[in-house]
Sequence to fold (737 residues):
Amino acid sequence: MNQELFNQWEGIMSDINKDHDLGHAIQELHFMMSQNPLLADGGEIENINRDYTLMKDFMRHGYKDDSREELYLHLLRKIYRAACNMYVRVEIISGNNIFAQANNWVARYNLSIDAIRQKLEGFVQDIAFLSLDPDVAQDKYLQLHKSHYDYMRNVFQWLLIARQWNDDEASAFTHLLLSPTIDANDAKLMISALTLSQLNVFDVNKLQVLVDVYLQSNDEYLRQRALVGIAFALPFHADSIFPSYRQMMDKLCQSERACKELLELQIQVFYCMDADKDNQHIQKEILPTIMKNNNLTITRFGIQEKEEDPMQDILHPDATDKAMEELEKSFQKMKKMQEAGSDIYFGGFSQMKRFPFFNYISNWFVPFYSEHPELQSVNDKLKGTRMLSMLLNSGPFCDSDKYSFALALSSIIFKIPENLREMLNSEDAMMMGATDENTSSPAYIRRMYLQDFYRFFRISSFHHDFRNPFDYSSDTRSFFFANPIFVGTRLQDYMLELCSYLLKRKSYQLLRCVLDMYPQTDHLDFALLDATVAMQNNLVEAQDKFRSILEKVPDHEGALKGYAQVSFNLGDFGAAENGYKQLTSLFPDNQRYLLNLSISQINNNHVDDGVKTLYRLDYEQPTNPFVKRALGWGLMMQGNIKQAIGVYDRLLSMENVHDTDFLNAGYAYWFDRNISFAINLFNRFVSARSQLPNQDKATKLVRAFENDSSLLQLNGISKVERLIMQDIVLNSEGNND
Fold:
């Protein structure tokens, strides 16, 4: 869409939905039409303006009208629909996009809901009649499917550019989708088209269709498509002019099943959005092992088996078993990722969407069926194999990937060795049947459909014409739980579970959004989440929030832990010590709390108390580097330098030495006047874990000395000595770049 026109339309939507400014919306629509005569709406806006003018005249003459508020809202709804219909026309006249293409195709047909019903029911009847006659030629059967496929492509496009529906049209279309006399795949495909149309232009009556289908259908595949459509269609603020929007969401959320499935769907959307991260993990961590241990090689003549090395069994008799064990572990990792919700096949199948099949937008959403006309050549090539039937009935692939797999396989089927073709013809082909999941469960069905949607918006060239429901930056529909339409519904009961999930993901911004929308300060778990999120950007606020919780529940472990940690990070070591004291009295066997208490005591000038506890912890955990780090620091604070050196010597002999260990050990040797050894350790500190230029190394050392100035002063190191040490270390031969 032309950006200027789009901005004007967005302003009109704001006038209507947020400001309820009917007069200004009418003016702006008139201006748009004056700028582009092709947007003329046949007098619809003029009729609304005439009614509004009459309303103003009545008010100007002082007439009282008890129905004025209701009539004004009625006109707002009418102008909203007129503006939305204009949006679609703007899209159509904008040129080379899916809406212009759809309009060109649809203009050739006389499509209406009644006409579509007759056509779809006729197709089912024709197929049934053909099945009764075994002598009917296969060509006739295929031609019937081809004709119906072409028709459904046009129905899909008709729905993309459909005008705003009235109540009767919505009711008629709901009955069509729920009708047992049409093919189930047709109903599913139309649900997808309806969903896409809602992404750009919200129609409350089309949303009603999706809600009714979800609540009334007995077909789980159809229900889950409708639920995804509902979630992605929900606008903000529209309930102010469409009371039915609020009513249908209230009705939807009265169903415990609907609330549960909306929660599952929200989490599944996040998993979809992690596809790139998951793919990177698979590429770097899992696939190398699989490729290393397989026995196939790809040549210009096709896929061939590698020749076995006869010496391998002699020199390494257990190598095959180990390779198989590694291979099995890699497959198990992928299996667990998939069952958790990850889209493990996105990376591979995203490269397989260049077939002409995907040049039609409807093919991105059509359920997989082997009679699809675009698979006719595939059927011919794979004749005698079970691949298509296995793809149809099983396999952990979404429909889009099943089509990709079938098309790709048909192009290489004669280039692979016979034994591999036999393997592909087995139940174990391509890990089919490898999942223990219930593939008929609502969650599984929904996830597969979401993956179809995700592929469309990541790969298809058509996706630019729609608002992307998976993109945080362009739309908030990916996080539909944050829609205020759900405030006050039963869905609020599921917010805590969602918040826990977001906390594990460290999605603090999204978590803050939920907490701000559903403030429940009297709910302990929400109060804890609120304080935890505050820790990410406002430590003072977080400390206050944790303190407020402790005033109500003094012995709450989570609140005490958060309060002590925040206090420590703020440098309020007295509060941190008190917090960890309470924790250690409640949980005396928790050595992490004891360690944190000791560190807090050292920083709070109760050094002897902290060191005493650290000695005990070091005796009980002699290989714990965190205890040794704290003990070494405490001993230096006490002035017990020889003991500190002993601790640091043991620490530096352990694995996973941190760069600050060299720094602190250097302090100990410096305080002991072993200057040469201290210089060596400082050199190792500035060089550790980096290949930084000298200036950055200098900054690293200078900042360390500044941060630890109190310790240096306590042990008799003057500022002059610090400066000289910095100069010696940073200009020593070992540090010259």
